[in-house]
Specification:
The chain is mostly beta strands. It is 11% helix and 32% strand. It has 2 helices and 11 strands. The strands form 3 sheets. It has a 7-stranded antiparallel β-sheet.
Length: 192
C-alpha cells in the first residue's frame, strides 16, 4: 500500500533564471509572501502554514511555542457522520516514516470525503485525479488519496467540510488500493 510523495512548488524568474521553492523550504515561503499571483486568503493561509502560526480565528498556541495548531481539525467526513477505520496508523508511504496516515471507508457518510478544516486546496494529480492536499492555517495540512469523482482545486480557498470526492481506489500517483477507501494523512509544513 505504498503511497506517493508530492510537494507543491512555486518559482519566480530573476536575472534570467528560475528560482524555485519547494513546499517546506524558506524559498517557498518567501515566494508565497511576495508573489502577485497568490491571492490574499491563500497568502494568509500559506504564510501561517510555513511559519506554523495560529491565525486570528484559531486558539493562540502556548507562549514560546511554534507548534502547529490542530484545534477544530475533523476526520474526513461531516460532523454527525462516520466512517470505519480500515487501516490503522501507518506512514504516508505505507513503508517507512512517521505514522501519519489512516484509512477509512464505510459508515454512514455515503463515501463522501470532506476537508478536515478550512484551507487552501490543491488537486495533486490534476483534474480527475484522486489526490487532494488541503493546507490549513496554523501549520498542518491534510492529504486525501484514492478518491474518485473528485472536485478539482487549484490553490482554491475552501471551507471546513468542503466536498473533495468519494472514497475509491484511484492510484493516480502510484501505490495500491485493494478496496475503496480514503487514505487520510496529517502533515506538517516542513519535509519532516
Amino acid at each position: 500500500h505504498g503511497e506517493p510523495e508530492g510537494w507543491l512548488y512555486i518559482a519566480h524568474r530573476k536575472d534570467g533564471q528560475w528560482i524555485s521553492g519547494l513546499e517546506g523550504d524558506r524559498e517557498f515561503a518567501d515566494h508565497v509572501a511576495r508573489s502577485p499571483l497568490v491571492g490574499k486568503a491563500e497568502r494568509r493561509t500559506m504564510t501561517a502554514y510555513a511559519q506554523r502560526k495560529a491565525t486570528p480565528q484559531q486558539a493562540t498556541p502556548s507562549v514560546g511555542t511554534t507548534a502547529a495548531n490542530t484545534n477544530g481539525l475533523l476526520l474526513p467526513w461531516m460532523p454527525d457522520y462516520y466512517m470505519t477505520l480500515t487501516g490503522g496508523a501507518h506512514s504516508h508511504t505505507g513503508s517507512t516514516g512517521y505514522w501519519s496516515s489512516l484509512d477509512f471507508a464505510g459508515g454512514n457518510a455515503s463515501g463522501r470525503v470532506r476537508s478536515s478544516r478550512e484551507g487552501t486546496a490543491t488537486s495533486m494529480c490534476g483534474a480527475g485525479g484522486g489526490w487532494t492536499r488541503v493546507i490549513h492555517p496554523g501549520g498542518f495540512s491534510t492529504d486525501y488519496y484514492h478518491m474518485w469523482n473528485t472536485t478539482y482545486y487549484n490553490g482554491t480557498s475552501i471551507a471546513r467540510s468542503a466536498l473533495l470526492g468519494t472514497i475509491g481506489t484511484d492510484t493516480c500517483a502510484g501505490g495500491a488500493a485493494t478496496g475503496a477507501h480514503v487514505h487520510w494523512s496529517l502533515r506538517t509544513y516542513d519535509a519532516n
